[in-house]
Design goal:
The chain is 12% helix and 35% strand. It has an eight-stranded antiparallel β-barrel with strand order 1-2-3-4-5-6-7-8. With 192 residues, the protein is mainly beta. It is built from one helix and nine strands, in the order αβββββββββ. Strand 4 (91-100) and strand 5 form a beta hairpin. It has a single domain (27-165), classed as Lipocalin (Beta Barrel).
Length: 192
């Protein structure tokens, strides 16, 4: 009888730990960034979370750029040896830890548009909405963008030719979740 009671109590005690693991992994998946310019795939490795760019709406430099038509590279990186890295496949979220209450912190976010790395905190507002806050020093001094969970479709490959997927991601679909329109309405990447 004591053994049965011990097993039952141990099971109840471990239940929150199992649920915490599920909550922590809630951000794993692909997200459409604010403005719909790119998609970031968030993965987990050794209890930390990382994200890399897997799709770009405009994978090549525009006509007015001095490198028009070429694949976008990490040319603003302060480390000159990294400036030839392609943007597609580039890691931009690094080392996040789940702190509870749908919040991930202690990580950094890299902005390839200016070559800067910021401290970052991510908060899952609901299963399809992720607030990503990059900041310098303290969280009060920063900017929040809203990302939406990507719900792909194999039927719509590369948004009718626009955009390009990172190598190994071809055919994974390219569609926003129902009712989401990149760059319009809530989650357009505007400051909050």
């Amino acid at each position: 009888m004591r053994t049965l009671l011990f097993v039952a109590l141990a099971g109840l005690a471990l239940q929150p730990l199992a649920q915490g693991g599920e909550e922590a992994d809630a951000i794993v998946g692909t997200w459409v960034t604010g403005g719909g310019k790119s998609r970031v795939e968030i993965t987990k490795a050794r209890d930390r979370y990382y994200g890399k760019i897997t799709w770009l709406k405009e994978p090549k430099y525009p006509a007015e750029d001095h490198e028009a038509g070429k694949e976008k590279r990490d040319r603003e990186n302060p480390d000159q040896s990294k400036r030839e890295r392609p943007i597609l496949g580039l890691g931009l979220l690094n080392g996040f830890e789940y702190e509870g209450k749908n919040t991930w912190s202690k990580g950094t976010i890299y902005d390839p548009e200016n070559g800067k790395t910021y401290k970052c905190k991510m908060t899952l507002r609901n299963p399809k909405t992720l607030h990503v806050r990059g900041y310098v020093g303290i969280s009060l001094i920063g900017r929040t963008t809203v990302w939406h969970r990507y719900e792909g479709s194999k039927e719509e490959k590369n948004d009718k030719g626009a955009g390009k997927e990172a190598p190994g991601r071809e055919g994974k679909g390219d569609r926003l979740g129902k009712g989401d329109k990149a760059g319009k309405g809530k989650g357009s990447g505007k400051k909050e």
